[in-house]
Automatic annotation (TrEMBL):
Keywords: Membrane, Transmembrane, Transmembrane helix
UniProt organism field: Amazona collaria
Subcellular location: Membrane
Protein name: NPCL1 protein
InterPro entries: NPC1_MLD, NPC1_N
Annotated GO CC locations: plasma membrane
Coiled-coil spans in chain: none
Length: 670
């Protein structure tokens, strides 16, 4: 449900480029080029022209397009439809709505409400009643002005209803909610109607072409200045948009869930008068048992006084079964007596014959093959499960395998940071610029490691075996799916070191990697953060990095952005995703030996960390190298080992310790 932010004072109407406010009058119309204040955007950042004139009639292709993109807007118009948008604006609107529909498609009502927000903002014939243009810049070479910022006034009830229809919509690709990607630094749990709209209107979100300041007006009030807040129908998520369509599913909308009939309550207790009914039979049963005991005792005492004499029954002759049993017992006793005498008299021949028999019967172990593959153990070759797995492997490739490096900082102190945007935050010791730069260098060295297949002599690289979702056929090293904190900076050391001036209201300061990190951890699907750095949160390979993968000790949304759990992890990790061997990718025969790995270069000297032999045994070089200014004092294995066994077998292994911090590498077989 929506959580409206209470109004402390009436909304302030900024100086306006929209002096005429009336039904059927526009605030802007057409396109006036690109916004000079937006540097990067996923969509074209074209902005409208100031045009406080009457709405234009929609005909031909414009009317057809609006009937498809904004059916509610066109349906509510009487007579010849009039709108405040051109065909070019409608085409851009269609693209923008299509992007949002990809995220909200699971709930048609939510997608329609979200589209209606922009349909009315851009094309409503009564645009001047709820839109107030506050900033415009002259268009070079013309007498027109381009809108770069405007205010938009909505009725609180409409905004809350639209937000409520989207609040429970899931996003299967992330396992979370759609609002996690549409509310900026706030997760779906902390998102409100105001925060949701604020993010949509933020020109720094990578999608909005200009700044839109949304104001939610409490029901029954007016912002003044001739403005009337927009209040149109908002579809409930439990409603079907038409007879041919279905409402949102129960997973995405609680209103669509069937009513659960509560179970019948327990039957009223049995009572005898004011007492519980169970108390009545118990004393009666106890009395009957006591009476029965006394009667039995009396009967036995009376019987003993009568002096009854017992006579022994005459013995009977043994039956047929008893005679056969005795005969069999005597025969077995004689046979085992003779066998024992024979073994005691000739021990060596008996042991020799027994040994020959045991060895002969054990020859079958030479061809015995133990099945250890869980697939073979738990599914028959012709079973449906095996057929479906074979189909999946053929069309989508084998299941992914992962290996990870976990970095902690046990002997370092944390730090505090006063963010201009996010307030005071405490950063754990592992989140420091020095550690992240060192981690980035380590990650790049691991990604650059190579191996050779002795049978073919082919050089094997990480991109030959990695999972590359956006470039599966011929991936480069940058296309590999690697999830790490440094991916928030696209594995770019220069971006990690960036600093920019930032103003937040009346507070002015600087932002750096910490602000970007906090933002991306709370909004990992953002293509552009809200800081002055204007960096993307997407990884170098093009996908998102979720905080529960990149941060150790991150417990999920119950921590939330308020507690600063993202800034205080117990460790950070690097996770490599690789595929199994299959045609078209790496498929060497036999075992693979790894080239000696260079650890650190100082002048002309090289310090080798170690190598993996053709048998897969890790062999240390026996030196004490340094890296990143930290002396290597103890280590158990090389950083990377590559071997091939039954198709593919890759290992990132064991533990490497440094002074100041250490890297723990989970031993994982791919």
């Amino acid at each position: 449900r929506a959580h409206p932010i209470p109004w402390l004072q009436p909304p302030q109407v900024a100086p306006s480029w929209t002096p005429t406010r009336s039904a059927g009058v526009c605030a802007f119309y057409g396109e006036c080029g690109y916004n000079p204040e937006v540097n990067t955007s996923l969509v074209a950042s074209k902005v409208p022209c100031v045009s406080n004139t009457a709405a234009r009639e929609a005909t031909g292709g414009l009317l057809t397009l609006l009937s498809s993109v904004c059916p509610d807007l066109v349906r509510g118009m009487a007579g010849a439809p009039r709108v405040c948008c051109s065909l070019a604006q409608a085409v851009a609107l269609q693209l923008s709505v299509a992007l949002s529909s990809a995220v909200l498609a699971r709930c048609p009502a939510c997608a329609r409400n979200f589209a209606n927000v922009y349909c009315h903002n851009i094309c409503s014939p009564d645009q001047s009643l709820f839109v107030n243009v506050t900033r415009a810049v002259p268009v070079e070479g013309t007498a027109q002005f381009a809108v770069v910022e405007y205010q938009c006034f909505y009725q609180q009830e409409f905004a809350d209803a639209a937000f409520a229809s989207c609040h429970g919509v899931r996003l299967p690709a992330t396992g979370g909610f759609a609002l996690d990607t549409m509310c900026g630094r706030y997760s779906a749990r902390l998102c409100t109607a105001q925060r949701w709209l604020d993010f949509q209107g933020d020109k720094n979100n990578g999608l909005a072409p200009l700044q839109i300041d949304f104001h939610l007006v409490p029901n029954g009030t007016s912002p003044g200045g001739g403005l009337e807040p927009l209040h149109v129908r908002a579809w409930s998520c439990g409603e079907a948009l038409s007879e041919q369509e279905q409402p949102c599913s129960c997973q995405d909308c609680a209103e669509s869930c069937p009513t659960i009939i509560p179970p019948a309550g327990p039957a009223p207790p049995f009572r005898i008068g004011a007492a519980r009914g169970s108390l009545g039979p118990r004393p009666l049963a106890l009395a009957l048992l006591a009476l029965l005991f006394l009667l039995t005792l009396c009967c036995r005492r009376c019987g003993s006084k009568r002096g009854i004499t017992l006579q022994a029954a005459p013995a009977r002759a043994p039956g047929c079964s008893a005679r056969w049993g005795d005969a069999g017992h005597r025969a077995l006793a004689r046979a085992f007596q003779r066998w024992g005498t024979l073994v005691a008299a000739h021990p060596l021949p008996v042991l020799a014959v027994a040994a020959v028999l045991v060895v002969g019967l054990s020859m079958g172990f030479r061809v015995l093959r133990l099945t250890t593959d869980p697939v073979e153990l738990w599914s028959a070759p012709g079973s449906r499960a095996r057929q479906e797995k074979a189909f999946y492997d053929l069309h989508f490739g084998p299941f992914l395998r992962t290996s990870q490096v976990i970095v902690t900082a046990p002997r370092r102190n944390g730090s505090s940071y006063a963010s201009v945007l996010f307030g005071a935050k405490n950063f754990s010791a592992v989140l420091s610029a020095e550690v992240l730069q060192a981690l980035l260098e380590l990650q790049q060295r691991l990604a650059a490691a190579t191996a050779q297949a002795p049978g073919t002599g082919r050089t094997v690289r990480l991109q030959d075996v990695c999972y590359a979702p956006l470039s599966p056929d011929s991936p480069a090293a940058a296309d590999c799916c690697i999830n790490s904190v440094t991916q928030y900076f696209q594995n770019n050391g220069s971006r990690l070191a960036m600093v920019a001036a930032q103003t937040n209201g009346e507070v002015t300061g600087t932002v750096d990697w910490r602000d970007h990190l906090i933002y991306c951890a709370n909004s990992p699907l953002s293509f552009k953060d809200i800081t002055a750095l204007e960096l993307s949160c997407m990884a170098e390979y093009g996908g998102p990095v979720f905080p529960y993968i990149a941060f150790g000790g991150y417990t999920g949304e119950q921590d939330g952005a308020r507690s600063g759990a993202v800034a205080s992890p117990r460790g950070i990790g690097v996770v490599w995703s690789v595929v199994g061997c299959h045609p078209g990718r790496w498929d060497p025969m036999g075992q693979v030996s790894l080239h000696p790995m260079e650890r650190h270069r100082t002048g002309s000297s090289r310090h080798l960390l170690g190598w993996v032999s053709s048998s897969g045994v890790v062999s240390p070089h026996g030196m004490s190298p340094t890296w990143g200014g930290c002396h290597l004092t103890q280590w158990d294995a090389t950083l990377l080992g590559v071997a091939c066994l039954d198709g593919c077998y890759i290992t990132l292994c064991d533990v490497t310790h440094w002074d100041g911090y250490h890297v723990t590498q989970c031993h994982t077989s791919w």
